[in-house]
Design a protein that fits this description.
Structural class: alpha+beta
Order of helices and strands: EEEEHEHEE
Number of strands: 7
Number of helices: 2
CATH topology: 60s Ribosomal Protein L30, Chain: A
Distance between the termini: 24 Å
Radius of gyration: 13 Å
Helix content: 10-25%
CATH architecture: 2-Layer Sandwich
Shape: globular
Largest sheet: 5 strands, mixed
CATH class: Alpha Beta
Strand order of the largest sheet: 1-2-7-5-6
Length: 121
């Protein structure tokens, strides 16, 4: 567990099983303020990915270890804006990815991101 990402008593931020780290769906909440990082898909996507990164670091990994990402969008029209921010975090050698619609309506939440990382060989 890390203080550098949102947490809840309802789920684990991430779970490490052997050399694999599974990161729970993270929204764009800034853990320093407990508020959304901003109202735009770009701001929320960047923060959600940074939250995932903090959990990976706590588990001994990094974004370089990510093999799969699932992105859940509240509004499918935000796809281009999400991609813009996503590309700044994963500029090359991107992991596999799926994008789908977020099934629950959370006030002002535009995106949730979960990841799976493999550490080492």
């Amino acid at each position: 567990m890390t203080a550098n990402a949102p947490s809840s008593s309802l789920y684990s931020q991430g779970v490490k099983v052997g050399s694999t780290v599974y990161v729970s769906g993270m929204t764009g909440v800034d853990p320093a303020t407990s508020e959304l990082a901003g109202p735009t898909i770009e701001q929320q996507t960047t923060q959600a990915l940074r939250n995932c990164e903090a959990i990976l670091r706590a588990g001994g990994g990094s974004l370089d270890d990510v093999v799969q990402v699932t992105v859940l969008l509240a509004h499918p029209d935000d796809f281009a804006g999400m991609n813009e921010s996503y590309a700044t975090i994963f500029p090359s050698e991107q992991p596999t990815r799926a994008v789908t619609k977020l099934g629950v309506d959370l006030p002002n939440v535009l995106v949730s991101v979960m990841m799976t990382a493999h550490l080492g060989d």
